[in-house]
Amino acid sequence: MADLFIKNGLILTMEPDSFNGTVIENGAIAVTGNTIVALGKTSDLEPEYGNSKQVIDADGKIVMPGLVMTHSHMSYPLGHNMPVDFSKLTSFWDMLMKMGWEWLEDVTTDEAVYAGTRYSAMKMLKSGNTTVCETVEAPNALPGPLMASARAIEEIGIRAQVGYEITERIPGKDILKEQSQQWAEKGIRENLDFLARYPKNNGSRIEARPAIHAAFTVSEATLKKVRQIVDEHKCGVQIHISEIPRAFLVEKYGKSAPQYLEDAGLLGPDVVAGHCVDLNDEDLEILRRNDVKVSYTPMTDSLGGNPVARVPEMLEKQMNVSIGHDCFFTLDISEYMRYTYLVQKNHHHNPMVISPFQMLDMVTMQGARAMGIEDQIGSLKEGKKADIILIEPDSPSPTTAATVISYFTMTFQGQHVHTVIVDGNIVVENYKMKTVDEAEVRRTCVEEARLLWKRNGIEV
Ligand SMILES: [Zn+2]
Q: Is the CB of residue 272 less than 8 Å from the CB of residue 237?
């Protein structure tokens, strides 16, 4: 007997790896507490676990590990569709300074972080995305936005590593004219307080993973200080790398972002790096030799008119590539999977560059590895955490062991996700959130968005 027994499902284990992962037809999983205690054929496990406290019949459904997103800003949806003057946004640089900083991050309050994070976490969970690596950005809300984020994450039920973005940018000031280590100190303090509350391996769904904005907004002194903290706490770090034109960094430092960050001693296998777009061969080699974990953000790269990341080469070099979405556009992970799968083929003029297996690997084991928790999540295996999703494929053709992998790049949509289990708890059941009132979460988010827009002089 276990706490939960899922039976008769088509189980995608992603073990021993995503390419040779065992698919079990008529499979079953037993869960006790937050841990998978047995996995196998229903006929083998039913005698022992058939009388478990809760039994889910997964007949006709795919049962698989929860999906992983490695770069997000969960309060960003408050800025979705804000009626701003788009004529002011002529480049990625404008988008970052105006849209990202002035109109969004600098006017984000603790309440906004809480409301936006609840909404994002809810939408992500409902699309089968059970784990996220989150960077919080709200300089004028310091101190406190990390706890506002954690409160939302606790409530909704997603698994997360969360950090506050350390930057020497002064809100309202041009970074080309002035930067301040004191602002970085505020961010460092916020992360240290959070590390004290959510250290590595604290047993909960939340862990602290400090964040740094980017090479061009922090000094070497700040980078060294953060590296020391990260080493002491063994918590890993997250950062944006090469998301703006390489030439800008070379003009500022005489080095590219990877060169600058390597020289400062920041790079290593515990770095999750968002974007990694404008890289030359040497930059790519620097990221490879430091085993930096790349979080590819296909849609935001496209939005900014940026280059397409060199993902096939990264995969060829055995680099770890997972997927990020920045919380722009929808929060449905299936869209980022399909977009990655297609835009890379398109850009490289080669239909073979990413296989459906590789795509699925990026949002399961590669995501788990990026976050340093591959021993806990990313695949279904006895002893691993019970982060499990059940999908009812709305597919025009049979879903079998032979077809299930290509379903994910061809037809899968977040709305096919029927049940979501995180840390042994059922958080989505029969397509509905169990932890919160969905309408209330959306209402609160819309209200906070209205208030945020008002701070920009926009009344709706
Ligand atoms: Zn980002």
A: yes
Whole-number Å distance, alpha carbon 298 to ligand 1 midpoint, is 12
User: Which residues, in sequence order, are CB contacts of 66 under 8 Å at separation 6+?
Assistant: 128, 129, 130, 131, 159, 377, 387, 388, 389, 420, 421, 422
pLDDT digits (tens, 9 = 90+) for 276-326: 999 999 999 999 999 999 999 999 999 888 899 999 999 999 999 999 999
Q: Rounded to the nearest whole angstrom, what is the distance from the C-alpha of residue 21 to the centroid of ligand 1?
A: 31
Ligand 1 centroid to Cα of residue 69, in Å, is: 12
Q: What is the pLDDT of residues 399-433, one digit of tens each?
A: 999 999 999 999 999 999 999 999 999 999 999 99
Specify the residue for token string 């009388």: 51
- CA quadruple 171, 146, 329, 342: dihedral, nearest 10: 110
Q: Do domains 4-65+378-429 and 67-370 have the same CATH topology?
A: no
Q: Specify the pTM.
A: 0.97
Compute CA distances 395 → 59, 74, 230, 403, 416, whole Å: 15, 30, 45, 11, 10
Phi and psi, residue 157, nearest 5°: 110, 10
Q: How far is the CA of 287 from the centre of ligand 1 (A)?
A: 18
Cα 445 to chain centroid distance, Å, stands at 20
CA–CA dist 418, 431 (Å, integer): 5
Task: Give the C-alpha separation, 57 to 76, whole Å.
Answer: 37
Ligand 1 centre to CA of 33 (Å) is 34
CA of 240 to the centre of ligand 1 (A): 6
Q: What tokens does 237 get?
A: 């770090």
The helix (run of H) or strand (run of E) holding residue 157 is none
The residue extents of the domains of the chain are 4-65+378-429, 67-370
For residue 106, the 8-state DSSP code is: G
Q: Are 25 and 19 in contact (CB under 8 A)?
A: no
Residues 4-65+378-429, CATH architecture: Roll (2.30)
Instruction: State how far the alpha carbon of 390 is from the alpha carbons of 128, 219, 387, 426, in Å.
Output: 8, 46, 10, 11
Distance 76 CA to ligand 1 centre (A): 10
CATH of the domain spanning 67-370, picked from 3.40.640.10, 3.40.50.200, 3.20.20.140, 3.30.980.10: 3.20.20.140
What's the Cα-to-Cα distance from 349 to each of 39, 166, 203, 337, 360, rounded to whole Å?
41, 39, 46, 19, 21
* Residue 274 contacts residue 322 (beta carbons within 8 Å): no
